[in-house]
From TrEMBL:
<keyword id="KW-0503">Monooxygenase</keyword>
<keyword id="KW-0560">Oxidoreductase</keyword>
<dbReference type="GO" id="GO:0008726">
    <property type="term" value="F:alkanesulfonate monooxygenase activity"/>
</dbReference>
<dbReference type="InterPro" id="IPR011251">
    <property type="entry name" value="Luciferase-like_dom"/>
</dbReference>
<keyword id="KW-0288">FMN</keyword>
<dbReference type="InterPro" id="IPR050172">
    <property type="entry name" value="SsuD_RutA_monooxygenase"/>
</dbReference>
<dbReference type="InterPro" id="IPR036661">
    <property type="entry name" value="Luciferase-like_sf"/>
</dbReference>
<dbReference type="GO" id="GO:0046306">
    <property type="term" value="P:alkanesulfonate catabolic process"/>
</dbReference>
<dbReference type="Pfam" id="PF00296">
    <property type="entry name" value="Bac_luciferase"/>
</dbReference>
<keyword id="KW-0285">Flavoprotein</keyword>
<feature type="domain" description="Luciferase-like">
    <location>
        <begin position="11"/>
        <end position="253"/>
    </location>
</feature>
<protein>
    <submittedName>
        <fullName>Luciferase</fullName>
    </submittedName>
</protein>
Length: 282
């Protein structure tokens, strides 16, 4: 199992320093987040921040938890992803989902799609365009909401065959999980609460079966590893944290991403203290 950390609170300088500390203390990934207007929370542009993180770290995976592609132009995301992928030497991962409509970037502006169906359709269009753009070949695409004609994106990403995509999967929704199964990883979400190790065990079995069936038609698409990425807060104390993470690892999870969002408890200083403790030893 690999371990990531979300820089949920702090200034730009504090977030960059937190990522450097995460790398120095054995974490495998560092993630920012993608918001526009979330209450009064200090919020930074994720792509600008990821560019800074790419040139100030050397080893750890980088991304944002998560990118709501429904409110982004996929051709612009294609350019942003390739740039950060090259800046980082191939360390970018792209976690994606429908996004939260209470973000002012959805609910506080006109013209954005807020229905779950509309956001899902735009997400699927965006992923289809990104995959074609990352190929480096000339392409056109006609989707439900986006049509592009005769585009070429160069250079290709450092990573082949593509930048890894982790998609949020609402377990046990077949449609949502089916989208994730077509990509490179799933960030499972439970319908009534956090996913449990038993949930992970069941969704891993379901995903393995689905990917085997899909591979019969597109074998070249399903050759790589598939990540199962669990978000949460580990218990205090190294033994308790290790036992908690081990239960998910034994169930088939490949990543634990420490994601702390309690404004009453979590500050830039407490995040730094936690990062310096390092990830659990399994």
């Amino acid at each position: 199992m690999r371990f990531g950390f979300v820089g949920s609170f702090g200034s730009v300088a504090q977030t960059v320093a937190l990522a450097q500390e995460a790398e120095a203390h054995g974490w495998d990934g560092f993630f920012t987040w993608d918001g526009i207007s979330v209450g009064e929370l200090d919020t930074w542009d994720p792509w600008t921040l990821l560019g800074a993180l790419a040139v100030s770290t050397e080893r750890i995976r980088l991304g944002a938890m998560i990118f709501p592609l429904a409110r982004r132009r996929p051709w612009k995301v294609a350019r942003e992803t390739v740039t950060v992928d090259h800046l980082s030497g191939g360390r970018l991962v792209l976690p994606v989902g429908l996004g939260a409509v209470d973000d002012g970037g959805f609910a506080g502006v006109s013209g954005e799609t807020t229905s779950a169906r509309g956001r899902a359709e735009r997400l699927d269009d965006a992923l289809a365009i990104l995959e074609r753009a990352w190929s480096g070949e000339r392409f056109s695409y006609a989707g439900t909401h986006h049509t592009v004609t005769d585009l070429v994106f160069r250079p290709q990403p450092v990573q082949r065959p593509r930048i890894p995509v982790w998609a949020v999967g609402a377990w046990p929704s077949e449609r949502s999980m089916g989208r994730a199964a077509r990509w490179d990883g799933v960030i499972p979400q439970g319908r009534t609460g956090p996913v449990t190790p038993d949930d992970v065990r069941a969704l891993v079995a379901w995903t393995d079966e689905r990917r085997r069936a899909l591979a019969a038609a597109e074998p070249e698409r399903f050759l790589g590893d598939f990540d199962v990425v669990v978000e949460g807060v580990l218990p205090e104390g190294p033994d308790a944290a290790a036992a908690h993470a081990r239960a998910y690892a034994d169930a088939g999870a490949t990543w634990w991403v420490e994601s702390r969002w309690d404004a009453q408890r979590d500050t830039p200083e407490t995040l730094l203290d936690r990062v310096r403790q390092g990830p659990p030893r399994l």
